[in-house]
Amino acid sequence: MPRSIPSITVSRLVAYLRVLxxxxxxxxxYVTSDELGAAAGVSAHQVRKDLVHAEAPGTRGRxxxxxxxxxxxxxxxxxxxxxxxxxxxxGRLGQALADYPYYGNSSFNVKTGFDIDPSKIGQRLxxxxxxxxxxxxxxxxxxxxxxxxxxxxVSAAQSAANSLVEAGLRGILxxxxxxxxxxxxxxxxxxxxxxxxxxxxxYLQPDVAPASG
Amino acid sequence: MPRSIPSITVSRLVAYLRVLxxxxxxxxxYVTSDELGAAAGVSAHQVRKDLVHAEAPGTRGRxxxxxxxxxxxxxxxxxxxxxxxxxxxxGRLGQALADYPYYGNSSFNVKTGFDIDPSKIGQRLxxxxxxxxxxxxxxxxxxxxxxxxxxxxVSAAQSAANSLVEAGLRGILxxxxxxxxxxxxxxxxxxxxxxxxxxxxxYLQPDVAPASG
DNA sequence: ATATGTGAATTGATTCACAGCG
DNA sequence: CGCTGTGAATCAATTCACATAT
Lengths: 213, 213
What we know:
2 copies of one chain form a homodimer. By secondary structure, chain A is of the alpha/beta class. Helices cover 40% and strands 15% of the residues of chain A. In chain A, strand 6 (147-150), helix 7 and strand 7 form a beta-alpha-beta unit. The longest helix of chain A is centred in the N-terminal third of the chain and has 19 residues, at 7-25. The two termini of chain A are 32 Å apart. The model of chain A has no long low-confidence stretch (mean pLDDT 95). At the A-B interface, helix 1, helix 5, strand 7, strand 8 and helix 8 of A face helix 1, helix 5, strand 7, strand 8 and helix 8 of B.
């Protein structure tokens, strides 16, 4: 039975998981939908509806068991197995991602970088080895890569994505401001901070009414 | 008459604007809702509904005038005036953002950085000057800063946000995986790539049905 | 002919209200 | 008594269908 959860709900589940991880660190045992909602910026109603997807029953009168719910969400979101990632494009952003400390105790292992620039290949600009793009197919198999963090220039984004798909990667975290064309079995998630700036600009205008979201 | 457009619509308008900017560069004169939708990854119906908000009538039988629609969306989104931004937290990510080339011909000017680490202050790690956090209030006024790119460690995020609000900034682009508590006149947009990775992980699981979004 | 613009229909998501359980 | 779990009701967003303009 293939599960199917709307993308917007998945986003909130990710947010709950983050809060629960914090709470567990602080050794909090129980949390109510009210508290969880406040910390994640949504209503208690919303939290309870979302948690239907998790198989972690709460205790009426008391709330949810933090440890149990955290484990359950973690499992639901596929974070109990390791995922291997590579950074495609070792420019400034790629390098920053390579040394980003907050993958933390998470299930993501950033294994390597790729670049077309010969001057970046082989060296260790960061703590990661960097390979040439045409080594992608063999390295994907060798390192069992699942996910690409795509940080190439806009002009190279689609052709890089094509290579990724061909090499067998199934998830792309796309940092370029481009809508990538990929086959349906490949999932793309967008991380576009310039688009974020533009959304901000809209809402900062004096005659625009604040709308949540 | 304060305009009010749902956040999800604003996101799509930003995407259309990007496509239109490309088309204008390629000297394309007209674009249909069909083409625009394909390039932005949404349906033609959706495009036409969204463009109700823009005052740029299309030509029946022909489509929209690229230049006109681009200008209109740009104005609607508040991108015809300059916005001044500062980077809060000059770690790796902050430095990468400081030197990011694609603000391009956009209306965002990243003026300066701030940090609490004395070793980062004053120097020019990047092309930007870096000030101490306690200079924030005066610099916000002096440089007429509008927007903060928040790239401090998670543990410092809320207190930094408080300082930003107090100093009078009204827009925060939040790179930390935290839900910031801010007064209603302050807008926060989230850029959380680890959350993006986690959403990817969910959809990469073999028993999860692909849902769009 | 062709593609926009928009009311109506549909689908989906959120909020409500309250029964049920601890 | 407090808080979860969930059907029902509301609200919002998307899709459809077609009249309308060029």
